Amino acid sequence: MPTSFAHDDCLVHDDVPRPGALGLPVPPAGPDVCRRCRGPVRQWAAECFCCSVVGRLLGQRPGQGPVVVPVAACRPGDGLHSALRRYKDAPSVAARRHYVALLAERMEQFLSAHVGCLWSGSGGWDALAVVPSSTRAPLRRSSVHPLQALLRRVPSLAGTPLLTLARGTEPVGHLAPDPRAFVAPSAMAGRRVLLVDDTWVTGATARSAAACLAGSGVTVPGVLVLGRAVEPGAQRTTSHWWHHCRQLAGQGFERCCLAGCRSAGASPCAT
After folding, report:
1. Given CA atoms 150, 153, 156, 158 in this order, what sign does their dihedral have?
2. How many CA atoms lie within 13 A of 258 on its CB side?
3. Where would I find the H helices in 133-235?
4. Residue 151 pLDDT > 90
């Protein structure tokens, strides 16, 4: 009998995920979609409020910085959002392994179809690095970040060096970025490092990591994010954006959020 793990109103089985467990497609940049994070934005604004605030605090101009590519959209309480929490924090080892496997499979599904889009849209990379939390207790030297363990289970990323970005001295807040929250090892200098994060809400953490790397001589061509999280009922723009994602769900995930991706129904993007 298949094992299942419950969290709030979300129940995901290890052989048959419930409908919506893998999130919804993320729309490409447009009149009501942020050009940076692909999240909700006031019509015709270049960037959403969060991206504008975080960028200003980092001293960046609109549009400056790496391309952001969310794999899927999620909202609090749905299957993807639950998995993104529970793969690190589930009380049992079996549950954490279950969610790691589920998310790794979702990442592989996306990359097997769209790694060419990501490569073309970002200009390519020669290494990966996960965005560590700046608020969790320091990892022991022997510890492996849960997202690193997840990426090692993604066949499309096999063979790509996985580098470790260390935590710094300062925290990162909801809309309070700080490059000092991270430290880039000297081995990263001169490399093109694709950042990978599990969840994007305001982008403060991922953009702080990217700014840290850029200040250390590292090129960050893109940020790959498993879940672009929103609260659809927060305001009219988010509700409209979520409705747009639901409409795109009828096409499946054949098309990603990057410009130039082949339309739904076409063959997968090639490297």
Report:
1. positive
2. 27
3. 146-151, 204-214
4. yes
* DSSP letter, residue 250: G
Q: Where would I find the H helices in 58-203?
A: 79-89, 93-122, 146-151
pLDDT at 224 over 50: yes
pTM: 0.87
DSSP β-ladder status, 182-183 and 127-130: unpaired
Q: How confident is the model over 186-198, as pLDDT tens digits?
A: 889 999 999 999 9
Contact 188, 161 (CB under 8 A): no
| CATH number assigned to the domain covering 23-251 | 3.40.50
State how far the Cα of 268 lies from the Cα of 271, in Å rounded to an integer. Answer: 10
Angle at 106 between CA 70 and CA 134, to 5 degrees: 55
Nearest-10 Cα torsion for 146, 149, 151, 153: -140
The domain ranges of the chain are 23-251
